[in-house]
Design a protein that fits this description.
Elements lengths: L1 H18 L8 E3 L2 E6 L8 E7 L6 H4 L3 H9 L3 E5 L2 E2 L6 E2 L9 H18 L2 E11 L1 H12 L6 E5 L16 E7 L28 H11 L9 E3 L5 E5 L7 E7 L9 H12 L3
Parallel strand pairs: 3-4, 3-7, 7-8, 8-9, 9-12
Antiparallel strand pairs: 1-2, 2-4, 5-6, 10-11, 11-12
Helix pairs in contact: 3-7, 4-5
Length: 281
């Protein structure tokens, strides 16, 4: 009996080890795609985590090579989960079916939810503190996930990307949303731009959305009482507008920084401070 129990225990350890074998360099596989994960050196039970969506032409493993960004999250005790988008046709790197005309939005949301569930099953992560964030079209994928399925993640932090035209008529809600953008972003301007060389009013144009219009959609989803923000913060690396008088359980903040289409070094700290501040005492 003791030998049998020992063998069962050993098998359990081996299975557990195999389940946790994926890492920052070794992928975890969900369906036909992978994700990668970086874990803090000092791990607590039920760690918070951020699922970070790469931009155009990127990859999950490539996202984790941004050591400055990843280290900032890890130092605050956050696991960083970086899923792969779908391969680009005829080109290197990956992309996301974020666009409303792609027909793939809900399958992408389902993939991100599957990544979330797989990571929760493998690692000691807090299921109530999984945040979705992304850069550029990864930010757009983050926004559309929040719009279509707001309960999929505890909060959403798009950077340098949100909706595209045609803007959604409305979003499910409420959500907890922090959108961050560069003041002089020329790749994804605050007002948006056509990216396929056509005039923005051409029916065939592929046009980014207007960030300020996106904020009006989020205010509506969150039931905010006023158009004007309730608080303004102008010290530090970000200028922030915060709407407080909105639906219970929601959060809406807009942060600008004096830069272009990039990931500011202080962005992870901003995101973690914001997300931690949403948690109950």
């Amino acid at each position: 009996m003791r030998l049998w129990l020992s063998l069962v225990s050993l098998c359990g350890m081996l299975v557990s080890g195999a389940a946790h074998a994926c890492s920052q360099s070794t992928p975890c596989t969900v369906g036909e795609r992978d994700y990668y994960i970086a874990l803090p050196e000092t791990r607590s039970e039920a760690m918070p985590s951020v699922v970070y969506i790469h931009g155009w032409g990127g990859s999950g493993s490539g996202a984790l090579r941004n050591t400055g960004m990843v280290s900032s999250f890890l130092e605050r005790g956050y696991a960083v989960i970086a899923p792969d988008g779908v391969p680009r046709q005829g080109a290197n790197g990956r992309t996301w079916g974020f666009h409303p005309l792609s027909g793939r939005q809900m399958s992408e949301v389902a993939f991100l939810e599957a990544v979330r569930d797989d990571a929760l099953g493998r690692f000691d992560l807090d299921p109530e503190r999984v945040m979705l964030a992304g850069f550029s079209i990864g930010g757009s994928m983050t926004a559309y996930t929040a719009c279509l399925s707001p309960d999929s993640f505890a909060a959403y932090a798009p950077l340098g990307g949100n909706f595209w035209r045609p803007h959604p008529a409305e979003c499910a809600g409420p959500v907890r949303m922090l959108h961050t953008h560069g003041w002089n972003d020329g790749t994804v301007p605050l007002e948006g731009r056509a990216v396929n060389g056509l005039p923005a009013d051409d029916p065939e144009a592929f046009v980014q959305g207007d960030i300020f219009y996106a904020l009006s959609i989020w205010r509506a989803a969150n039931g905010c009482q006023y158009l004007k923000a309730d608080r303004f913060v102008t010290d530090g690396p970000f200028w922030r507008r915060i709407w407080d008088r909105c639906s219970e359980g929601s959060a809406l903040e807009f942060a600008l920084y004096p830069g272009g289409h990039s990931i500011p070094g202080a962005w992870p700290e901003l995101v973690v401070d914001w997300f931690d501040g949403l948690q109950p005492e």
